[in-house]
């Protein structure tokens, strides 16, 4: 069972998420939090596998709560579920440690799919959030130039990864097996000295590793 904690200050949102998630045989909602501070406290006592985290909440916002959770319990995943997709929210949320960023207008089935993919070690970005992320990072001045340590195939995988694609989607796009994709992603993490897909995507965009212009 995937143990889920819902953190949102709106009762109606929590009820809606609870109602749908309870219909999934492999998901168990273990608790609900009305604000970020309560979310941190419940994570400590309930130890969920994943937290569905709203961004704007009283007491402590979702970004602060995510930072505290990831500092103390790095194995617990965070999926941001919010109404905001602007640059002032997307990048800080990912830098805080969120493994996914989805908007609240997401279809229920897609939300469940996102939860399962994150639990399987993948990172999920809503297309709008992904677009804002790339736009924000490319606006930064004086981006450092680094030598690209990746092979051509690893760079292809990284380019697909930064688009928020799952391992299955990357495999289909590049005509390779999912096992091969997993191997390439593991090599990418090692070479870029990052811990997860979100960090790899951030690194890639910041250092222009997905446009083919870096040295090999």
From TrEMBL:
<dbReference type="InterPro" id="IPR016032">
    <property type="entry name" value="Sig_transdc_resp-reg_C-effctor"/>
</dbReference>
<dbReference type="Pfam" id="PF00196">
    <property type="entry name" value="GerE"/>
</dbReference>
<protein>
    <submittedName>
        <fullName>DNA-binding response regulator</fullName>
    </submittedName>
</protein>
<dbReference type="InterPro" id="IPR000792">
    <property type="entry name" value="Tscrpt_reg_LuxR_C"/>
</dbReference>
<keyword id="KW-0805">Transcription regulation</keyword>
<feature type="modified residue" description="4-aspartylphosphate">
    <location>
        <position position="54"/>
    </location>
</feature>
<keyword id="KW-0238">DNA-binding</keyword>
<dbReference type="GO" id="GO:0000160">
    <property type="term" value="P:phosphorelay signal transduction system"/>
</dbReference>
<dbReference type="InterPro" id="IPR001789">
    <property type="entry name" value="Sig_transdc_resp-reg_receiver"/>
</dbReference>
<feature type="domain" description="Response regulatory">
    <location>
        <begin position="3"/>
        <end position="119"/>
    </location>
</feature>
<dbReference type="InterPro" id="IPR058245">
    <property type="entry name" value="NreC/VraR/RcsB-like_REC"/>
</dbReference>
<feature type="domain" description="HTH luxR-type">
    <location>
        <begin position="143"/>
        <end position="208"/>
    </location>
</feature>
<keyword id="KW-0804">Transcription</keyword>
<dbReference type="GO" id="GO:0006355">
    <property type="term" value="P:regulation of DNA-templated transcription"/>
</dbReference>
<keyword id="KW-0597">Phosphoprotein</keyword>
<dbReference type="Pfam" id="PF00072">
    <property type="entry name" value="Response_reg"/>
</dbReference>
<dbReference type="InterPro" id="IPR011006">
    <property type="entry name" value="CheY-like_superfamily"/>
</dbReference>
<dbReference type="GO" id="GO:0003677">
    <property type="term" value="F:DNA binding"/>
</dbReference>
<dbReference type="InterPro" id="IPR039420">
    <property type="entry name" value="WalR-like"/>
</dbReference>
């Amino acid at each position: 069972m995937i143990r889920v904690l819902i953190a949102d200050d709106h009762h109606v949102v929590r009820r809606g998420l609870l109602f749908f998630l309870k219909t999934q045989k492999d998901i168990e909602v273990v608790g609900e939090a009305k604000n970020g501070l309560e979310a941190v406290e419940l994570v400590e006592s309930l130890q969920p596998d994943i937290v569905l985290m709203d961004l704007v909440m009283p007491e402590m916002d979702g970004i602060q709560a995510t930072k505290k959770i990831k500092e103390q319990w790095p194995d617990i995943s965070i999926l941001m579920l919010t109404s905001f997709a602007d640059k002032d929210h997307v990048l800080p949320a990912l830098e805080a440690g969120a493994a996914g960023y989805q908007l609240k207008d997401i279809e229920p089935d897609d939300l469940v799919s996102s939860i399962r993919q994150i639990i399987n070690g993948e990172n999920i970005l809503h297309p709008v959030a992904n677009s804002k992320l790339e736009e924000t990072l490319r606006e930064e001045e004086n981006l450092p130039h680094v030598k690209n340590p990746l092979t051509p195939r690893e760079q292809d995988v990284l380019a697909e990864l930064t688009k928020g694609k799952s391992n299955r989607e990357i495999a289909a796009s590049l005509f390779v097996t999912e096992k091969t994709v997993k191997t390439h992603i593991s090599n990418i993490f090692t070479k870029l000295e990052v811990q997860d897909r979100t960090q790899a995507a951030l690194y890639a965009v910041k250092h222009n590793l997905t446009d083919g212009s870096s040295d090999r």
